[in-house]
């Protein structure tokens, strides 16, 4: 079976992804997936190993602290990330994904970040004698762990809120299953809020307060969604690319790393703030449900 580029896009590209991936990785990775899937028997796990080896090669270049080698290291890191995106695409395209493959992908990502951080910052410290590079190394590793832990915990809290609301609705309405407004709007972003309010089932909105405070966000979100870009504009991916690609290319390790770290923290705090607002919507919705006759939540 021969796969086309359109099939690769429709079956393997995420509906929303990091802007770095959408604009700078997917166009190349998609074409490489077509050739790899059609002309070779290379497995996703083999590609994952290839991404790791390129990442280790990048770390070796960073260790020299010479600008020409830093540029080569940045290029190798980018291609390592391209391969890292390819393994999942081929697994989804051919249906060959495994639990082991997912584990390898995660562990190798962390190894690549750790080794490249140690090599880049130690190389610069050894070359310049400036202690700030050691501090930046600690900060990069810490922030890489923080954003993973934060993402897992935020997802866990959201699942818990939805599960508790679903249970409360089912108990108060003899088994009726609630619908969440965010799910309806995700399926149909053009949905009229009045249509949501007139639905027969209970509609719960856990983003109501956030939208009421930041109405401009909807327009920005819609534009980004139309271009497959998620609203978390500085996530772990952009942070890594800033530290391991942009900083070495312009030979400005300190300012670029500090700037990227600051932007990452801003977006992480924004996620926490949004979760806090959702918890307020959760508390109100749960109180209304427990009254016995909750009114459908309004979507602003």
UniProtKB/TrEMBL annotation:
<feature type="transmembrane region" description="Helical">
    <location>
        <begin position="253"/>
        <end position="276"/>
    </location>
</feature>
<protein>
    <recommendedName>
        <fullName>CDP-alcohol phosphatidyltransferase family protein</fullName>
    </recommendedName>
</protein>
<feature type="transmembrane region" description="Helical">
    <location>
        <begin position="47"/>
        <end position="65"/>
    </location>
</feature>
<keyword id="KW-0808">Transferase</keyword>
<feature type="transmembrane region" description="Helical">
    <location>
        <begin position="229"/>
        <end position="247"/>
    </location>
</feature>
<keyword id="KW-0812">Transmembrane</keyword>
<keyword id="KW-1133">Transmembrane helix</keyword>
<feature type="transmembrane region" description="Helical">
    <location>
        <begin position="132"/>
        <end position="149"/>
    </location>
</feature>
<keyword id="KW-0472">Membrane</keyword>
<dbReference type="InterPro" id="IPR000462">
    <property type="entry name" value="CDP-OH_P_trans"/>
</dbReference>
<comment type="similarity">
    <text>Belongs to the CDP-alcohol phosphatidyltransferase class-I family.</text>
</comment>
<dbReference type="Pfam" id="PF01066">
    <property type="entry name" value="CDP-OH_P_transf"/>
</dbReference>
<dbReference type="InterPro" id="IPR048254">
    <property type="entry name" value="CDP_ALCOHOL_P_TRANSF_CS"/>
</dbReference>
<dbReference type="InterPro" id="IPR043130">
    <property type="entry name" value="CDP-OH_PTrfase_TM_dom"/>
</dbReference>
